[in-house]
Specification:
- The complex is a heterotrimer.
- Chain A has helices at 8-25, 34-54, 66-90, 97-102, 109-115, 119-135, 147-171, 173-189, 201-209, 211-224, 231-255, 259-262; strands spanning 2-3, 6-7.
- By secondary structure, chain A is an all-alpha fold.
- In chain A, β1 and β2 form a beta hairpin.
- In chain A, α2 (34-54) crosses α6 and α3 packs antiparallel against α5.
- Chain B is an alpha/beta fold.
- Chain B folds into two domains: 5-233, 3-Layer(aba) Sandwich (Rossmann fold); 246-386, abc- transporter (atp binding component) like domain (Coagulation Factor XIII, Chain A, domain 1, Distorted Sandwich), CATH 2.70.50.
- Helices cover 24% and strands 37% of the residues of chain B.
- Chain B contains seven helices and 20 strands.
- In chain B, β1 and β2 (24-36) form a beta hairpin.
- By secondary structure, chain C is of the alpha/beta class.
- Chain C folds into two domains: 3-16 and 41-237, 3-Layer(aba) Sandwich (Rossmann fold), CATH 3.40.50; 247-380, Coagulation Factor XIII, Chain A, domain 1 (Distorted Sandwich).
- Helix content of chain C is 22%, strand content 37%.
- In chain C, strands 11, 13, 14, 15, 17, 18 and 19 form a seven-stranded mixed sheet that branches.
- In chain C, a hairpin with a 3-residue loop joins β13 and β14.
- In chain C, α4 (119-133) packs antiparallel against α5 (148-160), α5 packs parallel to α6 (178-193) and α7 runs antiparallel to α8 (229-237).
- Classes of the chains: A mainly alpha, B alpha/beta, C alpha/beta.
- The interface between A and B is small, with 4 and 4 residues.
- β20 (382-387) of chain B pairs antiparallel with β16 of chain C, so a sheet runs across the interface.
Chain lengths: 263, 388, 381
């Protein structure tokens, strides 16, 4: 059985790489794997503290406090996952030069496995979110099922970007250095920490096409508002995810043979 | 010019061990020594003796946990070659960067460049990015960068492996030159001959302590002797683990097997000396009156079959007495084996079928090793010459 | 031989390595076919039969590592073909996957994960690595606390614990102390005896003699020489045949002896001037794949000091060699300088120069190399 040039055994390779990357990540730190849980929690706390309690931001027509916090985390959590996936995938080839140079592997498995590392902060922030929601007296509705297709589309899109970045970073090291700043820019230009209505009218249209925003909405709205955002958004990000994944995989395979000598 | 000196008092260094507890391991334990101007020190010791740690502390790369380390003079250290090379820059650009790091002006560096390039023998590669170099080329460039240094205190770790035979000979020669130029040289090496030829003094580290400090010939000799004793210990351990006696048929067994000196004196342990008068004595058990044969096989530890000897070569049969015992002896005369680790395996055969076996590892040392090569046997041929 | 009899077949293998990393961007975009490249392999043809280990000798920069990486499937070939028949164990850049912050055990675990070792085997293989590397408590310490030798032991033990059909080896057999080297050699020989094939790429010619029957020389990306290991080594060394320097050895090309019987060799030495001459002699055994061993080596002894022709007799009351062909080397030199121990070479006959001598020992064919005399006695208990 093959899919997009991947065979069955590649799934196991990806899974092995995923486990290896997780182990490598926190190696040498005293608390080890505990950091993978602590990191997202710390970030969520600091963002919540700054926005909810220092800036006293609130949603139009509601009080600051728990509901804003829930709203913030429902958007920020997935973003942390995206940021983690992209950073990890971008460095996956260059940072694992030892493997790329010495092991006959399907190199594209590395960025894919690295992109999966976003699942950890995602799981952590969702658990945190559910705790807050239940504390707020929340009960789920069938709408939450919409998170699954949206999540998959987002994962496909992010993995595609990650594959592209992993190759580009090996040609242009500067890209790896610039990536954290770029991620911050994307975060603040996407209506995640503020409602889309806060965006100037002229740019609102553009903001609504932003795949990160749409994916965010498809997670946030079913969860908090028990409703679905416009369906065209889901179609749009699915198409975008497919195209990005496919395109970057093609491009990656064009340069794959050069990678061991370029890292 | 000031006096160069390395002054070390009560130097200790602890390493934190992996794991959640704050366990520590003492790597260096109260070291005291002073190295004065003009001395060339060799440092020897087994794995984990703390040689590398000591060098790192003297070079200022690592800090002592307690004690005083005072280094008067500028230290140049060579730990592993090629670490400092920038992959994206060409060989030539790397030479300039290195010059800057060593504190030379561009003018001064320009003077060295032709020397370095000539020494490295990289041809057109000198203007290509280092990334495209082979491992050997990298170490050649890295080594060549050392060509122009004028060290006050030179610290060198391990034998430098720098590529092929021809270059490594050149590199060795340059190393000697460097060592001769250095006001103080501290060299860690596994090569006793390098220590003997290059150093004026030798420190033997053992488990983080100074075991011996003195004249290189004496210290290295003591060290080599100690290493063979230590090997005997590990050998003993390994022998204990291996099934060294087995009986393939009930009633037959080899009870003991031991090396003795011809004088009858038992040898303690498993270390023999080349050219010693040695014999192997063994005691076996067999049904009273039965006749057996014994075969002794000697293998080198890497699997080379050295010698097989069958008792029928000098005896008809070994006969078990009425008490069911056979004692016998295999004499080697002057032991012809040279330095090495060996295994002796003695098999008892009854009617040409192996019935019992006994194994024993042993080491042979040679206090007077041959220069210029190591043969399997120490046997010397008699050479006589007559005028025609 | 049919193609299935080979473990590795490489045909007109070419490999280009890009010079400029940034130029790959255009390839990535699909806008360029060519990037400025360096041709590292220029059409290499190589066949390795199953169960055979061949040596590839080359100086630095000849393309040795690139050749191994291409054969291992890490680099795709730019043209030509590679067919590898069996699973490959790559013994180069040992520890390249590692990270010095890992403990020895964690490194091996990572290694097993990367090589997809079955769960059921991991415990057993882990124990094997632990035993082979003999690191003791250090096995659970970080690699960065290891000495060079210990690190090498760990990497070698991990890399060779899994049995493979094909080994690609790059300069690794010079690791660790004498004892560990012997162990490493015997492990490799064990693997080869088990039917494995492979390529040993190195500049260490003695390693080639120890492990390989045939060899090649790789020079500037091309195989320039192919032959039996000793011929190729001789070509690789390119030692100039020593000219007699005041003294000369005159000998037949071949000696003979009988296993276990008295040995008696004769040759002549001519002194062209009044000069003190000493002679040394070695008898070596070269069995490809099994090893290159110096069996007997004499200390220098005096020949003569005045101009003239001398006959030398070499005697041993019993030839401690089993039947087979041996190499005889003869060295003439001045006496050692009492201060430096250096000698001036006057003339040499040695196989490494291609002017060596041989000795044929007849008698019983035996599995042991040096059957020395042992006298058995039954003693009263």
């Amino acid at each position: 059985m093959t899919f997009a040039g991947f065979e069955r055994q590649d799934a196991r390779t990806i899974w092995n790489f995923f486990r290896m990357l997780l182990r490598d990540r926190f190696m040498g730190s005293r608390l080890g794997a505990a950091w993978s849980v602590a990191n997202p929690l710390l970030l969520l706390s600091i963002y919540t503290f700054v926005f909810a309690f220092i800036f006293k931001s609130r949603l139009p027509g509601s009080e600051p406090g728990l509901s804003y916090t829930i709203w913030l985390i429902s958007g920020l959590g997935p973003w942390l996952a995206v940021a983690e996936s992209l950073t990890s995938a971008a460095n996956s080839i260059h940072g694992n030069a030892g493997i790329v140079k010495n092991l006959a592997i399907k190199a594209e498995c590395l960025p894919i496995a690295a992109a999966m590392s976003g699942l950890i902060p995602l799981a952590v922030s969702f658990s945190f979110l559910v705790v807050l929601l239940i504390a707020d007296g929340w009960a789920p509705s069938w709408h939450v099922l919409a998170i699954v297709p949206a999540g998959l589309a987002l994962f496909g899109f992010v993995t595609g970007l990650g594959i592209a970045l992993s190759a580009l970073v090996t040609f242009f090291r500067d890209l790896g250095v610039a990536l954290p700043s770029v991620l911050i820019i994307i975060l603040f230009s996407t209506p995640i920490l503020y409602p889309v209505t806060a965006v100037p009218r002229a740019l609102q249209m553009l903001a609504e096409l932003n795949p990160f925003y749409i994916a965010g909405q498809w997670i946030r709205v079913p969860l908090l508002d028990h409703a679905l955002p416009p369906v065209w958004g889901l179609v749009w990000i699915s198409v975008l995810a497919g195209a990005t994944f496919w395109g970057s995989l093609l491009a990656f395979r064009r340069v794959k043979g050069y990678l061991p000598s370029a890292v | 010019m000031n006096k160069r000196q390395v002054y070390v008092r009560d130097l200790c260094k602890d390493f934190r061990l992996a794991g959640p507890f704050m366990r520590k391991k003492r790597v260096l334990n109260s070291l005291n020594f002073t190295i004065s101007d003009g001395e060339r020190i060799g440092i020897i010791g087994g794995n984990g003796a703390g040689k590398t740690t000591l060098l790192q502390i003297v070079a200022g790369i690592s800090d002592p946990s307690s004690g005083i380390v005072q280094v008067d003079g500028q230290v140049t250290s060579i730990f592993s070659l090629g670490i400092g090379l920038r992959d994206d820059l060409t060989g030539r650009e790397n030479i300039f960067i290195d010059g800057e790091l060593q504190g030379y002006s561009r003018q001064e560096t320009l003077r060295f460049v032709p020397d370095i390039i000539a020494f490295a023998e990289l041809g057109e590669f000198i203007d290509r990015p280092v990334r495209n170099y082979s491992t050997g080329m990298k170490s050649r460039l890295a080594f060549s960068l050392l060509v122009h240094i004028d060290p006050e205190i030179l610290v060198i770790d391990e034998a430098l492996s720098v590529g092929d035979v021809r270059f490594s000979a050149k590199a060795q020669a340059r190393m000697h030159e460097l060592a001769a130029r250095g006001r103080i040289v501290i060299l860690v090496s596994h090569s006793m001959s390098a220590i003997r030829t290059m150093c004026t003094r030798c420190i033997w580290l053992d488990g983080g302590r100074i075991r011996m400090d003195g004249e290189p010939n004496e210290v290295t000799q003591a060290y080599v002797e100690n290493v063979s004793q230590a090997r005997e210990e590990t050998l003993k351990k390994r022998v204990r683990r291996a099934p060294n006696a087995e009986s393939m048929r009930p009633g037959f067994a080899i009870k003991s097997m031991q090396f003795i000196l011809d004088a009858g004196e038992k040898i303690s342990g498993e270390v023999l000396q080349s050219k010693e008068q040695v014999a192997l004595i063994a005691e076996a058990e067999a049904p009273p009156g039965s006749g057996c044969r014994a075969v002794l096989e000697i293998d080198r530890i890497d699997g080379l079959k050295i010698c097989i000897s069958d008792s029928v070569e000098s005896l008809p049969l070994l006969l078990a007495g009425s008490d069911g015992r056979i004692s016998f002896k295999a004499e080697f005369g002057s032991l012809p084996l040279n330095i090495g680790l060996y295994q002796a395996s003695l098999t008892l055969l009854h009617n040409a079928v192996p019935v019992a076996r006994h194994r024993r590892s042993f080491e042979v040392v040679n206090p007077m090793p041959h220069r210029g090569g190591q043969a399997i046997l120490v046997t010397q041929m008699a050479i006589s010459s007559s005028r025609l | 031989m049919t193609d299935t009899a080979y473990a590795i077949i490489a045909q007109s293998l070419r490999k280009l390595l890009p010079l400029e990393r940034a130029s790959l961007f255009w390839v990535w975009l699909g806008r360029a076919r060519d990037v400025p490249c360096l041709e590292v392999l220029k059409g290499v043809d190589l066949k390795v039969a199953k169960g055979e280990m061949i040596g590839v000798l080359g100086h630095n920069g000849a393309g040795k590592t690139t050749l191994l990486r291409t054969l291992a499937g890490i680099y795709p070939a730019d043209s030509g073909s590679v067919a590898v028949n069996g699973d490959v164990g790559a013994l180069f850049e040992l520890g390249g996957f590692g990270n010095r912050h890992l403990t020895g055990r964690a490194f091996v675990r990572k290694y097993f994960l990367l090589f997809e070792v079955q769960k059921e085997q991991r415990v057993r293989l882990m124990r094997e690595v632990e035993e082979f590397a003999e690191l003791g408590d250090y096995f659970d310490q970080k690699i960065l606390t290891y000495s060079t030798g210990m690190t090498a032991r760990l990497y070698f033990a991990a890399a060779t614990v899994i049995e493979r059909e094909i080994y690609l080896i790059d300069e690794i057999l010079s690791v660790g102390d004498e004892y560990f080297q012997a162990k490493s050699w015997s492990r490799l020989r064990e693997r080869l005896a088990g039917g494995a094939a492979g390529i040993l790429v190195t500049h260490d010619w003695s390693a080639v003699l120890k492990l390989c029957r045939t060899a090649r020389i790789l020079e500037d990306g091309e195989i320039v020489r192919e032959g039996t290991a000793d011929e190729v080594v001789r070509d690789y060394l390119k030692l100039p045949i020593p000219e007699p320097n005041g003294a000369e050895i005159i000998a037949e090309k071949s000696f003979s002896a009988v296993s276990g019987a008295p040995m008696h060799l004769e040759f002549d030495v001519v002194l062209h001037k009044d000069i003190e001459v000493e002679v040394s002699l070695s008898i070596e055994h070269l069995q490809f794949g099994a090893g290159w061993e110096i069996v007997l080596l004499n200390e220098y002894s005096s020949v003569a000091s005045t101009r003239g022709c001398y006959r030398l007799r070499v005697e041993l009351d019993r030839t401690p060699l089993s039947a087979g062909n041996y190499l005889v080397n003869i060295f003439l030199a001045s006496p050692a300088d009492p201060l430096t121990g250096q000698r001036e070479t006057l003339h040499t006959r040695s196989w490494t120069y291609g002017n060596g001598l041989t000795m044929q020992v007849t008698g019983e064919e035996r599995p042991d190399l040096t059957p020395f005399m042992t006298r058995w006695q039954q003693v009263a208990s």
